[in-house]
Inverse folding.
């Protein structure tokens, strides 16, 4: 066993600095200690990266048109998008509180069907792009029954809360040094092509969170179900961000999975260009000093660094950074 693990580290060292290779690239350096701590100067940089995901404060919501179902405010619309919805008066109506679904649409099934027809029209017109053929539940909080199922590509247009799962896949060597598996997204992805991402991540649709982690792990990284099922639920992060479509407000459930040193993920579904095994030092430097990471992944990586002791309470800015990872509503 020891020889095999040592061989794995020799392979890692040989691949450091090599050109990208799809599927099995392991570009990494070795950290010098088990508890590598982020330089204090980097905390300010990390904070700026988190702040870039929290660009809509509570007072900024007044500049958007509320989206309501049954008297409940569930989202926020740009005025230009609200005006397009208003053209479909049998589905959307303008009221004093904002844009609401027509009162005749009384069930989740009927709402989903009628709103879906309008979304198809807006996609045909080019208002909605990147059609996913994937329905996301629209609800006040995670454990509520959905009031509507909405095409994923339209979620940010409606500014409704969306959920996802992100899994940190990490490795410890015999000395306790940690490494993190990093994915580079395919250049053909409709969103954030070519950017750095987690080993496993996905939108949270209509199945359980753990079931979603196991499914995505197998589909995206070739992680066997029996191994993926060992992932631990370790918390959540949240943010509210201004995007071209309108408002993106997400809650990301966070999972950790410690992987064997000799396990190498495989790109399975075409969504990942390559997987890379990076030292914590390289991860911290990349997050702090580059724009390579998919924005919301930054929050999950920083959460990992805090929980694993690479950012600690004696560093100035620690509490501000910790609090800002959960700045938006966590319901």
């Amino acid at each position: 066993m020891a020889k095999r693990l040592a061989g794995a580290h020799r392979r890692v060292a040989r691949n450091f600095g090599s050109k990208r290779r799809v599927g099995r690239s392991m570009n990494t350096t070795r950290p010098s200690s088990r508890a590598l701590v982020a330089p204090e100067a980097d905390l300010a940089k990390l904070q700026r990266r988190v702040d870039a995901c929290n660009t809509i404060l509570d007072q900024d919501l007044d500049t958007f048109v509320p989206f309501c179902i049954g008297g409940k405010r569930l989202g926020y619309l740009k005025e230009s998008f609200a005006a397009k919805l208003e053209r479909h008066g049998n589905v959307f109506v303008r009221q004093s509180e904002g844009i609401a679904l027509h009162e005749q649409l009384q069930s989740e099934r009927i709402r989903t069907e009628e709103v879906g027809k309008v979304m198809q029209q807006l996609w045909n017109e080019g208002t909605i792009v990147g059609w996913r053929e994937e329905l996301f539940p629209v609800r006040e909080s995670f454990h509520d029954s959905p009031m509507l199922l909405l095409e994923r590509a339209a979620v940010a247009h409606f500014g409704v809360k969306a959920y996802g799962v992100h899994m940190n896949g990490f490795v410890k060597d015999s000395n306790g040094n940690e490494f993190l598996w990093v994915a580079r997204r395919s250049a053909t992805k409709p969103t954030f092509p070519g950017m750095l991402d987690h080993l496993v991540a996905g939108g949270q649709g209509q199945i359980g969170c753990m079931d979603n982690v196991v499914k995505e792990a197998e589909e995206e990284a070739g992680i066997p179900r029996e191994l993926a099922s060992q992932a631990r639920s370790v918390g959540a992060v949240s943010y509210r961000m201004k995007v071209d479509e309108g408002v993106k407000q997400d809650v990301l459930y966070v999972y950790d999975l410690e992987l064997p040193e000799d396990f190498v993920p495989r790109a399975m579904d075409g969504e990942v260009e390559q997987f890379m095994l990076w030292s914590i030092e390289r991860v911290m430097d990349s997050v702090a000093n580059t724009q390579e990471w998919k924005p919301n992944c930054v929050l999950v990586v920083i959460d990992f660094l805090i929980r694993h002791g690479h950012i600690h309470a004696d560093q100035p800015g620690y509490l501000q950074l910790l609090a800002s990872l959960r700045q938006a509503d966590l319901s």
In short: The chain has a mean pLDDT of 89. The CA atoms of residues 137 and 206 lie 7 Å apart.
